[in-house]
Specification:
With about 250 residues, the chain is of the alpha+beta class. Helix content is about 35%, strand content about 20%. It has a single domain, classed as Roll (putative xylanase like fold), CATH 2.30.260.10.
């Protein structure tokens, strides 16, 4: 019985070690409130480093029907949460922002639970194309190439992996803190009808560009990592990228 109690206690402690309290969120939001929005997005993304990967196929937060589920994340939840916390001035305001940014329509809370997660963004391409997720700046960064689309999109514009690496080699990469990188899947390797296979967030440190992302998979797990963007792009399984940026407030 003592071992059962110990294991239960250990599980509870490790499963919530990465979650933030409202007071911690409020304090940190106040501390960085005067920073540009891109900085705030990158800073909040970095706060999730080491957080375990969410292996629930549709997302633990969707299954539980909750807004806040910070003790495990996938790439979409990390994107959601970093933005919400960056835009909000208080934890409650971040929840209100979540009810807008996570949904193609508007999220509805009832007795503390989300009752319309079926109306959430389920595809990264829908987030970027909606206008709710900043301005797409892909064409401002490099020459566009096109791949076949899906779900009503004939073609999708992107910067190819090789072109992106070439731009980085030439030192021509004007990415900023908090830029969202949407990774385009090879159309021939899609298992469903998704165009975007992964999302990450840029963190710039001097001349170095880092990618903060939920590194893992639904069947194997993983955790949030910060890696050199160049190294990730060089070995990634995706054919190209799209980029979104928030400039206000």
């Amino acid at each position: 019985m003592k071992w059962l109690i110990f294991i239960s206690t250990l599980f509870l402690s490790t499963s919530s070690v990465f979650a933030f309290t409202d007071s911690e969120i409020a304090s940190y939001q106040k501390e960085i409130s005067d920073r540009p929005i891109g900085d705030r997005i990158a800073i909040w993304a970095e706060r999730f480093l080491g957080t375990p990967y969410d292996t629930d196929p549709i997302g633990d937060y969707v299954t539980k029907r909750v807004i806040v589920n910070d003790d495990r994340v996938d790439c979409m939840y990390l994107s959601f949460r970093a933005l919400e916390l960056a835009l909000g001035r208080t934890p409650d305001e971040s929840i209100e922002i979540a009810l807008d940014k996570r949904f193609t329509t508007k999220g509805v809370l009832k007795d503390g639970y989300v009752i319309n997660y079926d109306e959430r963004f389920q595809y990264g391409e829908d987030m970027l194309d909606s206008g709710k997720w900043g301005v797409e700046i892909t064409r401002d960064i490099g020459d566009l190439r096109f791949v076949n689309g899906s779900r009503g999109r004939d073609k999708v514009a992107m910067i190819s992996r090789d072109d992106f690496l070439l731009l980085m080699d030439k030192g021509r990469m004007p990415l900023k803190n908090g830029d969202f990188i949407y990774f385009v899947k090879d159309p021939g390797k899609r298992q469903g009808d998704e165009i975007i296979g992964h999302i990450g967030i840029i963190k710039r440190e001097g001349d170095k560009l880092f990618l903060i992302h939920a590194s893992g998979s639904k069947n194997k797990g993983g955790k949030v990592k910060k890696v050199l963007l160049y190294e990730y792009i060089k070995s990634m399984p995706f054919v190209g990228i799209r980029i979104g940026r928030f400039t206000t407030p």
